[in-house]
Amino acid sequence: MKYTNPIIPGFYPDPSICKYKDIYYMVHSTFQYFPGVTLFESKDLINWTQIGHVLTRESQLPLEKAGRSGGIYAPTIRCHNGRFYMVTTNVSAFGNFYVWTDDIYGEWSEPVIVDQDGIDPSLYFEDNICYFMSNGTDEEGHSGIIQCEIDIETGKKLTPGRCIWKGTGGRYLEAPHLYKINGEYYILAAEGGTEYGHFIICAKGKTPYGPFIDAPNNPILTNRNLGGYEIQGCGHGDLIEDESGNWWMVHLAFRQIGLWNMFHITGRETCLVPVEFSEDGWLLVGEQGTTPIEVETDRLPDNLHQDKRKLYTIENTSPGIEWCFLRAPDMKKYNFTGDTIELTATSKKLSDEYGSPTFTCIRQCEMVGKVSCLVALEEQEAGITLYMDNMHHYDFFIKKTKEGTLIQKRICIGDIAYIQESIPIENRDIAEVTLSIRMTPTNYFFEALYKDKIYDFGKNQTRYLSTEVAEGFTGVMIGLYAQSDEEDCVKPAIFKDFVYDLSYSSGE
Ligand code: 6LW
Fold it and tell me: What is the share, in percent, of the chain residues with pLDDT greater than 90?
């Protein structure tokens, strides 16, 4: 059969995977968004369904100090004796910590903090020992992959952190994972930075502490030499063995907006590639060490079909699954009724560096699509935003002012922030307008429908919301929001008929 990468499109980076019985589970980093750490399941490795988030309570996920791309970095998920563990870093609060659950569909524990610095923690269990590793510096000042043993009940370190591998010399050694395969210990890690130069490396040894020998074919995976290829930035991988004993790797990568257009807007996404072993036991990953868009494989059944989700509406989505929030949302300002979303504005703004504006969002997961929504407003401002971060967003909204009611488009690109278009409409108690945005890889096109008349609000380039412009680790979100210039509002803005249609194809 054939499947296409990414297997999970949109901002789902730093994937980590485990298997329990015959189901695979996967988690991703989520940074300043609440709830934290997306949790997916799959029976076949290519069709994934989000079942929730791991971090769902404020006590597990304090994000007040999480600026853009702060908060939750790369997680690892592992299952040991039927108990699931998810270990990650809150770079704005706890540092490294883990949570656990005996019911993957239920709540997870309170955080257990591990006193070892660095990011990208991972766990490896063997013979009642829990090995904890992350990148960082050990007690003797050696930098690299640092490993210690911990008491998994308390998180206490049982041994000092020890540098077990220094990688291959590329910048930003990160994303370490340890595995035992055919009696040997494998370390997987990434280097090169999570940009165009990203790559994955491997080493193996006879004990969990090494010494480790670098793979002769390092980097075992990279697309850095593929010019004019859509998938770039392959890194941060995790290995999994399937039911038939075949090995696979999930990893992050991103898609450029054009073959020669080196910007990406949909964040770092999750890809899947087959892994084989050479005669000497080294990993042979993907297509000669690269990740193709299309993978043809006889490891998956011929009749297996890859379903790609094409439609998001209010009716077929849920708060806390697809819809997420910024930092510490005040849920009294939100009302999800099943076919409407009601948002009550406060004076917190989309452009604020911290705090939680009344804002809920789903990911822009393909470059082409169309979003539309009917917005009904009685006071202040509400609309749709394409939100990369607080400094990079395009807002399309209705605004009630003392002078009258306006439909406006605001552009925020770093220090450049201004109202680009403004059209007055009738001044009624309730302003009702359908706002829509057509998306192509290079442009967003804005249109408002008011009283059977279409108002053209022009287009804006996608690239100014890209990671290459905004920096950071997230992707563009499609947000619904309400905000007030003065005090908190009383009357909510009402959003109806929300459609994010991925089958829409416009041509440009
Ligand atoms: C993450 C690190 C990385 O912790 O980027 O691409 C960091 N890899 O492993 C943020 O996602």
Answer: 97
The CA distance from 350 to 348, in Å, is 7
For 70, half-sphere exposure in the C-beta direction (CA atoms, 13 angstrom radius) is 19
Burial (0-12, 13-18, 19+ Cβ within 10 Å), 169: exposed
**Does position 345 have pLDDT exceeding 80, yes or no?**
yes
Residue corresponding to tokens 């020890």: 162
**Domains observed in the chain:** 2-296 (2.115.10.20), 311-501 (2.60.120.200)
Rounded to the nearest 5 percent, the helix, strand and coil shares of the chain are 0, 50, 45
One-letter identity of residue 501: D
Count CB-CB contacts under 10 A for residue 395: 24
For residues 120 and 142, what is the distance between their CA atoms, to the nearest angstrom?
Answer: 17
| Cβ(119) – ligand 1 distance below 6 Å | yes
Please confirm, yes or no, whether 14 is among the known catalytic residues: yes
pLDDT in tens, 110-155: 999 999 999 999 999 999 999 999 999 998 999 999 999 999 999 9
Which of 29, 196, 271 for mutating ligand 1's site (highest number of atoms within 8 Å of CB)? Answer: 29
- Is the CB of 174 inside a 6 Å radius of any atom of ligand 1? yes
Q: Which of 138, 174, 195, 269 is catalytic?
A: 174
E runs forming strands in 107-228 = 112-113, 122-126, 129-137, 143-150, 162-165, 174-181, 184-191, 199-205, 213-214
How would DSSP label each residue in 383-401?
EEEEEEETTEEEEEEEEEE
Rounded distance, CA 291 to CA 275, Å? Answer: 11
pLDDT at 499: 98
Q: Whole-angstrom Cα distance, residue 491 to residue 87?
A: 41
For residues 381 and 480, give the distance between their C-alpha atoms in angstroms, rounded to a whole number.
Answer: 11
CA angle 491, 493, 495 (to 5 degrees): 150
Burial group, residue 290, by CB count within 10 angstroms (0-12, 13-18, 19+): middle
Q: Mean pLDDT, to the nearest integer, of 87-102?
A: 98
| Vertex 323 angle, CA 270 and 12, to 5° | 10
**Which residues have CB under 8 Å from 209's CB, separation 6+?**
147, 162, 164
Could you give the CA distance from residue 340 to residue 490 in angstroms, rounded to a whole number?
A: 17
What DSSP letter does each residue of 419-448 carry, written as one string?
Answer: EEEEEEE---SSEEEEEEEEE-SSEEEEEE
Q: Whose CA is nearest to atom 9 of ligand 1?
A: 175
pLDDT at residue 375, as a whole number = 98
CA angle 104/110/115 to nearest 5° reads: 115
pTM comes to 0.97
Mean pLDDT of 8-14: 98
Atom of ligand 1 nearest to the CA of 74: 4
Token pair 């009738």 is found at: 426
Statement: residue 430 has pLDDT above 60: yes
